[in-house]
Specification:
Helices cover 40% and strands 20% of the residues. The N and C termini lie far apart (67 Å). A hairpin with a 3-residue loop joins strand 4 and strand 5. It has 2 domains: 10-63 and 292-333; 67-285, Rossmann fold, CATH 3.40.50.410. It contains 8 helices and 12 strands. It has helices at 10-30, 35-57, 95-109, 134-142, 161-172, 244-254, 268-276, 299-333, and strands spanning 60-63, 66-71, 73-80, 114-120, 124-131, 178-185, 208-213, 220-221, 239-240, 257-260, 280-285, 289-293. Strands 5-4-3-6-7-10 form a 6-stranded mixed sheet, with helices on both faces. It has a two-stranded antiparallel ribbon with strand order 1-12. The chain has a two-stranded antiparallel sheet with strand order 2-11. By secondary structure, it is of the alpha/beta class.
């Protein structure tokens, strides 16, 4: 099933095909034509349905060990998934929804790049190392849920430091790579640990990107994983506010721009600049790779069978009308 991309869910397609086959079989059983002629019609119509099913399943071409031209860009996404990212003062709905949309926009704007994803809250997780499989990252960010309130114990912006360092170093070791980092967060640091931290030591490993901040100074309310309001220690409804000082400091340390995400924010110019500064590399892909639809190969056969079916239908209808006309003339003579 990995090399199929059906236009409708497979169970629905199979159900429709089965229903159509039942009708075709019923017509064959009830046919008054000669058995040879009706059986030919059965075979013809079964082939039409089978070809239509194959086309609707959209088979994809799969090849192994191919040389492919790719962008020489490694893009690392670092996504804050702490409770405050579910505050409702995002540009459209929540901060997290805006960050998810931004990741998708950036991936679409940097075709051929390798992407990696780190998420962090109490601790850090490498959700995906650098990969060409963008669908894996899309599916992952789509499934991110609000943290369990009993697990969420506050946030600190340096939690993902060592995972970031590890992936940046792995990119730096590759020849002729451009390493881009996007850091998505509201910057809110609620940890009681006041130990100073800095990302400055990683700046030489980053060639571009941005720190993108979410939220407002007024702040937004949050709900937990049960959809209930989050309360502060004073039992007021908890309000989370963006901390742009933290975010600007991280951007300065890494040597990238800071962007406050607003409703009108788009990354077209930034992504164009990244693409202009990059090149292409030829890589040997030892894993399976899909190179697009192959359903069109079956279209000529389906078209030919439908044309034949139409021709036979028109011919049989003409014969029936001619036969009916002779019958009427014979009755008039009698």
């Amino acid at each position: 099933m990995r090399n199929l991309n059906p236009v409708f869910p497979v169970p629905a397609l199979v159900a429709a095909f089965s229903a159509a086959m039942i009708i075709v079989l019923f017509a064959w059983i009830m046919s008054r034509e000669s058995r040879i002629k009706s059986t030919f019609a059965l075979i013809r119509r079964t082939a039409i349905l089978a070809l239509a099913l194959i086309i609707a399943l959209r088979p994809m071409k799969e090849e192994y060990g191919t040389d492919v031209k790719l962008s020489n860009i490694d893009v690392l996404f670092v996504l804050d998934t702490t409770m405050s990212m579910w505050a409702d003062d995002g540009p459209n709905s929540t901060r997290m929804k805006a960050a998810q949309d931004d990741i998708r926009e950036i991936m679409e704007g940097l075709p051929g790049a390798n992407f990696a994803l780190i998420t962090f809250q109490n601790d850090s997780t490498v959700a995906a190392p650098f990969t060409q499989d963008v669908e894996t990252i899309r599916r992952y960010i789509k499934t991110i849920k609000t943290p369990n309130r009993s697990y969420a114990t506050g946030s600190r912006m340096d939690v993902p430091y060592y995972d970031i360092e590890s992936l940046l170093v792995s990119s730096d070791r590759k020849e002729n790579r451009v390493t881009i980092l996007f850091f998505f967060s509201d910057g809110e640091d609620t940890s009681l640990d006041d130990t100073p931290y800095s990302y400055e030591a990683l700046g030489y490993l980053v060639d571009g990107g941005a720190v993108i901040g979410y939220g407002t100074e007024k702040g937004g309310e949050m709900v937990d994983n049960y959809g209930l309001p989050v309360y502060s220690n004073s039992w007021d409804i908890g309000v989370s506010r963006i901390d742009e000082d933290n975010l600007e400091q991280i951007a300065d340390d890494l040597g990238v721009d800071y962007i406050h995400r607003e409703r009108s924010t788009h990354y077209t110019r930034l992504l164009e600049d990244i693409m202009e500064d990059s090149g292409t590399v030829t890589e040997r892909n030892s894993e399976y790779t899909y190179f697009g639809d192959t359903y069109y190969r079956y279209v000529p056969y389906l078209t030919a069978l439908l044309t034949l079916e139409l021709f036979i239908g028109i011919r049989d209808n003409a014969k029936a009308r001619k036969k009916h006309g002779r019958k009427i003339r014979k009755e008039k003579k009698e």
